Amino acid sequence: MPTPTPLPAHVPTPTGIPTPRRGDPAHPTRGRAVLALLLALVLLPVGLVPRAAAEVRDGLPGLDGSDSALLRQAGHRIAPGLDLTSFSRLQPGGWVTGHVMTADLSTPSLSLDVADGGTVSASNDTVSGFAAEADAVAAVNGDYFDMNASDAPVGTNVSPTAGLRTAASDPRQAFTLVDGRAVVQELASAATVAFDGRTVDVDAVNSPSWRTDELAVFTPVWGSHPVGRLVGAAEPVRVAVVADGVVRSVGEDHSVLAAPAGEGETLLVARGDARARLDGLRPGQPVAVDLRASSDVDLAVGGSQRLLTDGVPTREDQVTAARTAVGVSRDGTRLWVVAVDGRQADAHGMTIQELAALMADLGAWNAINLDGGGSTTLVARPAGEQQLQVVNRPSDGQERLDSNALVFRSSATGPAEDVLARPLLDPPVGLDADGAHDLLPGLSRTVVGVGLDADLAGTAARGRFTAAPGAVLRTDGGAALDEEAAPDGARDGVVVRGRAPGRGTVSYAGRLPGGRVSDRVELTVHGEMTRLEPSSPVLALPDAPPGEASAELSLTAYDADGFAVPVETRDVEVGAGPGLAVTTSGPTGFAVTATGTDADASEVRLRVLDTEVVVPVTIGFRTSPVADFSDGEDWQVGTARATATLSPAPGPDGAPAVALDYDFTTSTATRGAYALPPAPLPVPGQPQAFTLWIEGDGHGAWPRLQVTRGDGTSTNLDGPHVDWTGWRQVTFAVPAGTAYPLTVTAIRFMEIDAADSYTGRVAVAGLDAQVAADVEQPEEPFRPDPVLLAQGDVDERPQRVAVMSDTQFVARDGADGDLVRAGRRTLREIVAARPDLLVVAGDLVDEASEADLALARQLLEEEVGDAVPWVYVPGNHEVMGGTIERFEQFFGPARTSRDLGPTRVITLDSSSGTLHPGGSTEQLRELEALLDDAAADRGTTGVVVVQHHPVDDPHPDAASQLTDRVEAAALQRLLTRFRAGGKSVALVTGHVGTFSADARGGVSRIINGNSGKSPSGAADEGGFTGWTMLGIDPGAGIVPASPEAVTDRTEWLVAETHARVDSLTLQAPDRLAVGGQAEVTATVVQDGGREVAVAWPVTATWSGDGVRLAGSRGPAVVELDPASGRLTAVGAGTATVTVEVNGETAEQRVVVGR
Q1: What does the alpha-carbon distance between residue 231 and residue 217 come to, in Å, rounded to a whole number?
Q2: How far apart are CA 33 and CA 709, in angstroms?
């Protein structure tokens, strides 16, 4: 077929065309002709649906500008005229998490000040400290300062209550208030000294940044840092000490600068040529010192770059970092105070240009950059609280000692007139906590309520809670709030418990002087709990004195639709094994502490409702040598698309090592150089990690330990990229849930970036295992999800979409190579099944050379042609040897969207391992726009999103999933939010090497296994080859307000796997007596001998003469339960049990006697 060519805009489904339903006699061809017409009409390009820049949603500041995507935001009140919005978003530079405080300066009760430690030097404090001392409701860090020296601010700072604090010699941008209006302007010193009939300019006041040939004034405000340290020891100075307006002394002795200015004293310090300004000054002479800034302001906080000038962004730029900024509206009555986090996975910070764009998006007319980096700190006392809280996450990991802060005070008076309620799990400030508003039947949620005084601080309200409807929620009485939950004692609390699925409301009615007022908390009760997961399947405590080794543990409950609900501690029965103590730690957490017995292994048992989980706990570990490389001459070299040699070498401290000289310039595809031991290295026990000494060359190769797990499958343990030189010990963690024992089979160094080409030399020495005491490893339950059928097919669904992936052939193996033949076989099976659409979900090729892609094109044209519409979604192997543009030359756009009648199919490009390749947010913004359009389009009932990488890899090592875990979580939220809007959605992927399916947040997630390449998982856990057919009923795509778990997902979409079948055998008894039972099994043999049990996720159709399936009615000789394989003889006679897998059948005759 020709390459799909997108249209210039997304075309909605034409109206007036009925949606066919399979089995409808009016559509004997199952509507395929109609759907083919629709495909021809509505093949969609992916172009952006325009959105207003930085639009304001729900009254919050506009934060979706600057080409950002995946925005989360939450707003909170602080005080009258002062609100706070926290946000997280992805923008082209990376993830940004920040906070915007808006201030309405026309609010009479709101005032601003500049707070410091009482002096400006040697008195730094945290922003929390400044705010508490100033009795503020909020504060943000202020001016840059002379860090690790005098710690004094370097700009001009003016307090409305304490006057001029510092004045710089050079003009610097400052945030100022003038007659109640905000202005960003340059400020400097305009101080003067008058004596002997003349007036002398003073260059700086209490400033650490004055220079040679300048005159500075230091008052007691300066503080205790010796002024003498600001000048060179041999530098000529002239110092005058003025007390109560009279010169006490004049001289050039530095010693006078060792002591701070006393009460009523002023130091005049002239450096270099400025000494001449004090000529004629003598003791006893009257002096008038006038301290002022260059502009008459009521308040000033010094800063640096002017971000916006009359709406125009600055051209300056700097590195990415945490940032603090203040923006001002055009009329000066509104402020935007911004704190952006930095140096964290979900918060890389901002450049100056990005910060300027944000301030413009928010609506600022002028804006200034204040001190940032580790100094960035925003604190606030949220509505309903009495204590200040740190709102952001300082990039130093804790609050830095800053020089000053811009503080906000509120003086509103009057009786309490409002109340506030929230789940205790939801923070009073910041982004909402996942699951805080969710419940499952039988689980509880603590809801707290409090009165709000005129300043919005928390106050007692003597309130009453009610929950409705009673069929969904019930109250369990008042909650006992500890000091952490109610530090001020003003809060009321209630325990609310879920009764049945649905949406409910908890109301809090307070009795206040002005009468009753109320607030409401919306809660959603999802389906019955189907599983319980601990935050860590195994806890590893280090060796430590009794009571000092501790770890946190919490539980999450899930329903059958994958809704995750944090479990509060009251709902958990806890049992601690020998040597352990378990105490509560917050509403949902437990602290597990080693008590100091001789036990090196124990366990914690946690029961919720009727489900129990056991968390093994190890205490300490021993180091066990795995390879000392004394046999280095026997080690072998291995390569992939590279050349390398291996030789013995000296290691650290003279220990033996082996060196790997490699050449990664031979290909742009993934390259590897490996050190292979003479024989596989078995590792006894249950190692938690391996350590290996690596002599780095700084080129950035990726070290990996290849190991075989206890279940016979292979995986890699990843280390950090070798960006160092010299010897360094590296740790390779073993994921919890790994099947033991482990065997090391290779030490691998990889290069996966096509743009990186280099030669180098690394060496390795001393491979050790950190082995903890043996514990019974918790088995990850293999949980069948009904979205993937174990029994039946999707033939009667109105729409069917075939999915294949991960064939991974290379052209150099020829057009008749094994993997090419496997791909052809898969395509022929799909064409014979006559789906409405074929989606190749990535990794059809292995190296993405031009020859590979040309062969892929040839295969699709020869085997599919125009028999079935198809779309090719790129995977990581489609860009292994180059860029996505090469793929697009052969197959068109890397991302597409099309409507199959009422079903929208969106395909995304995750070939880079993320959905934002090269930092571009375009694809994610397109996805948001397409989902918004689908939600608004009355003709669309559901969306299928296809990409190569899954959100989550079901294997313990989680090595095959979206690499940006912040993006993965955000994508899941986006899809869950779409479904909550009332329409169905599913995510279909590949990449993992096994067939699997689950649900998260009501979203079915289907992983197609390999269609050619050998699987990566165990055969009985989806590790087989084949393809998947999706069956969709668009008429069932609309999701009700209270969906029924599983049913509403699977009525819209289910899937069947088509395992490759070389042979199929059925094992069943020849004879049974009436009432007797036996087990029936079937086995698929594929790909030269792989045996696969016919059980989920293998889809089969069980049937037969005289056979009744469990749950059905009617006469029968035997009853068969396909899920358990149990065969029950129910009547005398002869039956034939039949199983069909992917068109192949096997049968067994069973005679039942009395």
Answers
A1: 14
A2: 50
Secondary element (H or E) of residue 818:
helix 818-833
List the one residue out of 336, 335, 409, 338 whose CA is nearest residue 371: 338
> Tokens 């150089």 sit at which residue?
673
Class of domain 529-619: mainly beta
661-684 b/e (C-beta count within 10 Å ≥ 16 → b): bbbbeebbbbbbbbbbbeeebebe
CA distance 468 to 14: 43
Domain with CATH 2.60.40.3450 in the chain: 529-619
Sheet with 1026-1032: strands ordered across: 870-872, 837-840, 799-804, 1026-1032, 1053-1059
CATH 3.30.9.10 is right for the domain spanning 622-770: no
Amino acid identity, position 664: F
CA distance 138 to 1083: 68
Could you give the count of Cα atoms lying within 13 Å of 1024 in the half-sphere of its Cβ? 29
Q: How far apart are the first and last CA of the chain?
A: 61
Label the pairing between strands 1026-1032 and 1053-1059: antiparallel
HEC sequence for 368-404: EEECCHHHCCEEECCCCCCCCEECCCCCCCCCCCECC
pLDDT over 70 percentage in the chain: 93
Q: What are the residue ranges of helices labelled H in 962-1063?
A: 965-980, 1047-1052
Give the least confident one: 267-271, 698-702, 1017-1021: 1017-1021
3-state helix, strand and coil shares in percent for the chain, rounded to the nearest 5: 15, 40, 45
Pairwise CA distance, residues 117 & 133, whole Å: 9
Tens digits of per-residue pLDDT, 219-233?
A: 999 999 999 999 998
CA-derived radius of gyration, the chain: 35
Backbone phi and psi for residue 222, each to the nearest 5 degrees, phi listed first: -60, -45
Cα-flanking dihedrals φ and ψ of residue 950, to 5°?
Answer: -75, 160
For 891, counting Cβ atoms within 10 Å of its Cβ (0-12 exposed, 13-18 middle, 19+ buried), the class is buried
The answer to whether 288 and 198 have CB atoms below 8 angstroms apart is: no
pLDDT band at 959 (very low <50, low <70, confident <90, very high): confident
CA atoms within 13 A on the CB side of 192: 8
The boundaries of every CATH 3.60.21.10 domain in the chain are: 799-1059
Reported as a single tens digit per residue, the pLDDT across 697-706 is 999 999 999 9
The closest of 405, 377, 401 to 150, measured between CA atoms, is 401
The answer on pLDDT for 429 being more than 70 is: yes
Residues of the chain with CATH 2.60.120.260: 622-770
Q: What is residue 485's predicted lDDT score, i.e. its pLDDT?
A: 60
Q: Could you tell me the two tokens for 781?
A: 């339950």
What is the helix (H) or strand (E) element at residue 833, kind and residue range?
helix 818-833
> At which residue do the structure tokens 């909605």 appear?
12
d(CA 843, CA 875): 5
The domain 418-510+519-525: what is its CATH number? 2.60.40.10
Quickly name the fold that domain 1063-1153 has: Immunoglobulin-like (2.60.40)
Residues 6+ apart with CB under 8 A from 213: 271, 272, 273, 274
CATH 1.10.287 fits 191-290, yes or no: no
* 3-class SS of residue 832: helix
Q: Fill in the DSSP letter of residue 350.
A: B
Query: Which tens digits make up the pLDDT trace of 1046-1101?
Result: 999 999 999 999 999 999 999 999 999 999 999 999 999 999 999 999 999 999 99
* Contact assessment for residue 895 and residue 920, using Cβ atoms and an 8 Å cutoff: no
339 near 140, Cβ under 8 Å? yes
Chain region(s) in the chain for CATH 2.60.40.10: 418-510+519-525
Residue 1123, helix vs strand vs coil? coil
CATH class of 799-1059: alpha beta
